[in-house]
Design brief:
By secondary structure, the protein is mainly alpha-helical. 64% of the residues lie in helices and 4% in strands.
Length: 554
């Protein structure tokens, strides 16, 4: 057990302070906090955060690092704190609205992680639903500042969120249904509590209805018709999500080359499935194979759980040191219907396990295992669950911030994409159909590097007929994402509204693979892939620049 240093104490105190400031953050990481409250999204709260960041920055400067772990903590925390300050100075909070990852979704989504077993837990839920009104009121204030300064979200994103909010605000929307279905793990729900839940659900639903009216009547008329964020702001978003500064133009050209390479590899595998077939013909063949079909969400959930359990059992024998608390991963069908698949980590003491969630779009009842096996590895083991869970487990070396609060998309999503390729290299995707599914995901991730930079940095279209717009981007993605059109539409809207995040998967994978190649070249015959993986994962979810710094020093 490593001795706690003064820098560790600063980091630990910062996590406690963040949990006090952000009840959503506390619930997300399973840390003590007020579960009857939501975050304050008002302009005043953002101003207070500037003071909080300055305080912790000063505290870090008061201490010299005592070992490599301290150096890594300093490197990573300063990176995050500095970028948060740059976001504040760029006033990006005033236009923070998109179809997937803004307070509009986060306020509702946190209820998915709340415990629902006891009267006290349901009472907390009632309290939190009553606070939806305050959270959205503060958010409206912040978005209103953007209206006044003429720096607003894109019209396309506002329209998307209006549709999402409309569903929540219906009589049978999320909050009312959540309260109606409430039950205890043991015993009967007291009638008084049931009434409190119904009243709180009504309040939360009305708050989203009011928010929806604000979006329609005030924000939508003021929203910018321009989708592109612009090169200067894009570079800031990219640094935040990747954890390293990239050469925008080189990365765009690399994305085009990588897309062509993956497409060629996919065409070769399609020929293995059906000699002479195109990729689309091979996919059509796989889609008609009854052995590769799951019917209904119950079958999907059971299959996910079985494949996840198998991966943990097999990989834990030889390729990874999987601690006992990490050997439990719950596979769940999400209460939402957005079409995404995501992972939520365990809480601090693992009483809430890591979970893989599948948000199944309305009307979708059949699922192809050939397409989804690689997703199980991405979200589970050796992907996010191995990564996030190992950091949470590593109390012997890491402070609370490194274990629970440090996350960079390029590191996390890059690792998960790297994990998919790793499973192919280890022989778990030798079936040509499963391998085609993995390559389909890789192709989509490469395509969105090109699309994301092309749209937001206003690059010429690949056919040189003008600049990227939504129609061109949709058709480009439809060619490279072999999913139903609703899914393609959701994904393209995501890229348009969340600049820099989507490329971080492929750019992070590129970074991880280079780290491995460099280590092999450096260590020669002494290189051990398992040791490399465990050393890297034991560092926590740090920015990629910090990861490179730490691996070179260790």
């Amino acid at each position: 057990m490593r001795k706690t240093t003064p820098i560790d104490k600063v980091a630990d105190e910062w996590v406690k302070r963040l949990a006090e400031i952000s009840p959503i953050f506390a619930t997300d990481i399973g840390y003590p906090g007020d579960e009857t409250k939501l975050d304050d999204y008002s302009p005043e709260a953002e101003e207070r955060m500037v003071h909080e960041r300055n305080t912790v920055q000063k505290a870090l400067l008061e201490h010299k690092p005592q070992d490599l772990q301290d150096e890594v903590t300093l490197h990573a925390m300063r990176n995050r704190l500095d970028l948060d300050q740059e976001f504040y100075e760029a006033k990006l909070g005033q236009r923070d609205l998109n179809n997937i990852a803004s307070p509009a979704q986060g306020i509702r989504d946190i209820f998915d992680l709340m415990a629902t077993n006891t009267e006290e837990q349901w009472s907390n839920i009632a309290g939190r639903m009553n606070d939806v009104r305050n959270a959205l009121a503060g958010y409206i204030e912040t978005l209103t500042l953007g209206i006044h300064s003429k720096d607003t979200p894109a019209r396309r994103q506002v329209e998307q969120v209006i549709n999402q909010v409309s569903e929540i605000a219906q009589a049978d929307g999320f909050f009312n249904e959540f309260a109606k279905d409430a039950k205890l793990a043991e015993g009967e729900m007291p009638e008084s509590l049931r009434k409190d839940l119904a009243a709180a659900a009504k309040s939360a639903t009305e708050a989203y209805d009011k928010f929806g009216r604000f979006l329609k009547e005030q924000l939508l008329p003021a929203a910018t018709p321009k989708d592109a964020i612009g090169r200067e702001r894009y570079e800031l978003f990219s640094r935040y999500f990747v954890g390293s500064k990239i050469d925008i133009d080189e990365t765009y050209e690399w994305g085009i080359e990588e897309l062509a390479r993956v497409t060629k590899e996919q065409e070769e595998v399609a020929n293995q499935i059906l000699p002479g077939a195109s990729v689309l013909e091979a996919i059509a063949h796989l889609e008609t194979d009854p052995a590769r079909k799951l019917h209904g969400t119950d079958e999907l959930q059971a299959w996910m759980q079985r494949k996840s359990d198998e991966a943990i059992e097999h990989l834990g024998r030889e390729h990874f040191d999987i601690a006992e608390p990490l050997r439990q991963l719950e596979c769940c069908i999400a209460p939402t219907q957005s079409g995404g698949v995501y992972y939520t980590g365990p809480n601090d003491d693992f009483s809430r396990p890591g979970r893989m969630w599948w948000s199944v779009p309305e009307g979708v009842t059949e699922f192809g295992t050939w397409r989804e096996l690689t997703t199980v590895y991405h979200e589970g083991v050796p992907g996010h669950h191995m990564q996030v869970g190992q950091a949470a487990y590593n109390r012997a070396e890491l402070n609370a911030w490194r274990r629970l609060a440090s996350w960079t998309s390029g590191h996390g999503e890059g690792w998960a994409l790297y994990a998919e390729r790793l499973m192919a290299e280890l022989g778990y995707l030798d079936d040509p159909g499963d391998r085609l599914g993995m390559l389909d995901g890789q192709r989509m991730r490469a395509a969105r590097v090109v699309l994301d930079i092309g749209v937001h940095c206003e690059k010429p279209r690949l056919d040189c007929t003008g600049k990227w717009d939504f129609e061109y981007a949709f058709n480009f993605m439809k060619e490279n994402l072999h999913e139903h059109e609703k899914m393609v539409d959701f994904e393209v809207n995501r890229y348009f509204g969340w600049p820099g995040q989507a490329p971080s998967y492929k750019l992070g994978e590129r970074f991880w693979r280079k780290l491995v190649a460099d280590a092999k070249a450096r260590d020669g015959a002494n290189f051990n892939l398992k040791d490399f993986h465990m050393k890297a994962l034991n560092l926590g979810g740090i920015p990629l620049d910090t990861l490179s710094f730490a691996m070179l020093r260790s």
